[in-house]
Amino acid sequence: MGDHCEFCINGFYGDPRINVDIPCRPCPCPGQLLSNHSFADTCSLDPITRDVICECKPGYAGARCDICSDNYYGNPEVPGGSCRPCECNEKVDLLVPGNCDPRTGKCLKCLYDTTGDHCEVCRPGYFRYSEDRPCEECKCDELGTNTTAGPCDPSSGQCTCLPNVSGLRCDQCIENHWKIASGHGCEPCDCDPLGSESPQCHEYYGQCRCKEGFGGRQCNECMPSFYGDPKVQCLQCQCNYVGTRTSQCNRQTGACVCLPGIGGYHCDRCDRGFTGSIPDCITCGECFENWDRILQDTKNDTSEIILRAGDIKNLGATGAYTKEFDDMQTQLEEIEQLLNNTNEINTEDIEIQLQRLREKINQTEAEQLNALDDQLYDHKEYILLREVKASALNDTLNELKNKIKELENNGTKLQEANVQGALTLIANAKDKAEKAARKANHSQEDIIYAETQCTATETLINNSQDKYIMQSEANDNKLREISKKLEELDQEFPGLNSLVCDGGGSPCHPICGGAGCGSCGNSLTCANGAKQQAETAVLNANDTEIALRNKESLANDFIRNVSQINTNETRNLAQKTYDKIRDELTKANNSLKLVTDMREEMSEFMGQNNTKPEDIQHLAEEIFEKNIEKTPEEVQELADNIKNAVDRLTNTDYIIEETKDDLAKVNQLKEHAEQAK
Asked: Which ranges in 510-612 belong to alpha helices (H)?
């Protein structure tokens, strides 16, 4: 194409000009124009590299239009392939490269908390109700959500709850359950149907609403300071408040919890091993400890004997007189042997030997029975002696005496059932009794000393009896006064709670609490209380303080900006004036230099003796050809403007001082530029 056929038509490339002679060929983009595999209407030949450059259609890129451009995907390099726009539902930034896979079209850089091959769904932890709404973050409660079960539902935002937990955010227990703060789900309230007003308990404390006369978390116990079965009868704890840790006794038995050194069912006396009067109980000392240790050892020994006696009664004594029975067995074997040899022995001899054996057996049995009787008599004497010595152990050995009598009775019964076992038992008891007697003899002096101390203590107690009675009466009066004051305070609590916590009507309001309770004003229904209003006022004051600080900061920033603007405007005005003065001064200096040069040329010319009239004429014409751009009026006007501009400047010394460094830098740069020429 062209007037001289110097160009190729669209769809071809080459340079058909004379002396170049590159014929026109079809554009390979990547196929030819008519091949249905071309993605460029025209192409050109690079004059330097001689490479073909295709002018690709939208969506194609590369020198041959054989790849897809950004935000397009496909296989344009194969016949029948093409590039198509990536379908990302307008959830990508088209100005950012690499939004989708150039082969598959899968979206890679989804925005607005979306994901998926086409950015069509919310990413994990986000949800939306419909496609035309943005994705919102799921607000799952950490205490009630099962974090191991995956994210929330992407279409509803429902979190995966722990057992017995409900709500979109898993932030509340199901009905009649509590303890969501455990992190393992909610537990049943288990309110007692007889003692509670409803099966629902407090969601965090688990306390059921109890009927009158019932207490405990599940309302299956008596009220505080009571014990027993609430379904049958509740009895008030009878604890001595001086000697107890708490006013609540054992809820089943009513036994009070005593302070150290104090004992008794009601904690109303000093404990065993302590002496004095409550609450001033002191230890009895080393004397009691030694004596108590002896009694405890004797008690343990007696318990062991009784246990062994019971075993002998049930099982018998197989180990007693084993040698005697063995001898009898040997003799019986000899008799059996003699009977087996009757053919060789005379019958009379046999009778004689039998008679001797009978006599020997009878003698042996008589001796053994006499020995047993003697031993039994001796043991009875030892037992009587032991009882006499044990009686000297004072009242503290009564328990031991009773058990020794039981041992004696058990020994008599065992004697009837098994003589040998009974004798063995009594022999062991004899040894134990002798040991106890020796310990009792050694402790006699300690007992005498203890009796002396007891006598002195009784005298001291008798002397202090009147003082104790007076002090006790004074304490009782004081206790009644304190109880009266407590009753008055209890009556004042409802009114005080109404003012402080907005929960009047009971000493401890079930929702608002009260001044004497564990909580106060923690519910939205208690907003009228003084405590809640005070907290609200503090919050408002804090918000106001923050707002004032923000306003103050904005004001300071505005003042600094205004000051900066004024300084910049003044500096810019001075700079413009300075530049204008410098330009006009430069022009004036150029004009002055031109006149000076002309004057010097005229002087030099006139000083020559051989000056010709033609030269003078030529010089005059040259001078007249010189043209000063400014007329005298314009020069005067320029001077007046400069003067007025200088007069309008304020604080010029400060401006000159501020711009001195900048002017020095400009001059320095100018010198460097002139040196570089």
From this structure: 530-606
Dihedral angle computed from the Cα positions of residues 553, 558, 561 and 567, in that order, rounded to the nearest 10 degrees: -120
Cβ-contact 430, 379 below 8 angstroms: yes
- Assign 283 to helix, strand or coil: strand
DSSP state of 196: E
Query: Could you give the CA distance from residue 39 to residue 64 in angstroms, rounded to a whole number?
Result: 9
Residue of 372, 378, 382 lying closest to 429 (CA atoms):
382
C-alpha–C-alpha distance, residues 345 and 334, integer Å: 14
At a CB cut-off of 8 Å and minimum separation 6, what does 9 contact?
A: 1, 24
What does the domain layout of the chain look like in residue ranges? 1-85, 284-318+378-463, 546-606+614-676
For residues 60 and 70, the answer to whether their CB atoms sit within 8 Å is: no
Q: Tell me the pTM.
A: 0.36
Q: Are 39 and 48 in contact (CB under 8 A)?
A: no
Distance CA 83, CA 39 (A): 10
Question: Dihedral angle at the C-alpha atoms of 614, 616, 617, 620, nearest 10 degrees?
Answer: 160
SS (H, E, C) 55-112: EECCCEECCCCCEECCCEEECCCCCCCCEEECCCCCCCCCCCCCCECCCCCCECCCCC
- Distance between CA 108 and CA 121 in Å, rounded? 13
Q: How far is Cα 47 from Cα 53, in angstroms, rounded to an integer? A: 11
The CATH number corresponding to 1-85 among 2.10.25.10, 3.40.50.2000, 1.10.10.10, 3.30.70.260 equals 2.10.25.10
3-state secondary structure of 200: strand
Q: How many C-beta neighbours within 10 Å does residue 321 have?
A: 17
Whole-angstrom Cα distance, residue 498 to residue 507? 10
Helix axes 444-463, 286-315, angle to 10 degrees: 120
Mean pLDDT by runs of 10 across the 677 residues of the chain is 73 76 84 81 83 89 89 89 91 90 92 92 92 90 91 92 94 94 93 92 92 89 89 89 90 92 92 89 86 84 77 57 61 61 50 65 63 60 55 57 60 45 53 58 53 54 60 70 68 64 61 60 56 64 70 64 53 66 68 62 52 50 51 59 54 55 59 57
State how beta strands 67-68 and 60-61 pair.
antiparallel
- Residue keyed to tokens 């909610």: 186
Tokens 């450059």 found at: 53
Token representation of residue 232: 């049958």
Smallest CA-to-CA distance from 573 within 653, 663, 648, 637 is with 648
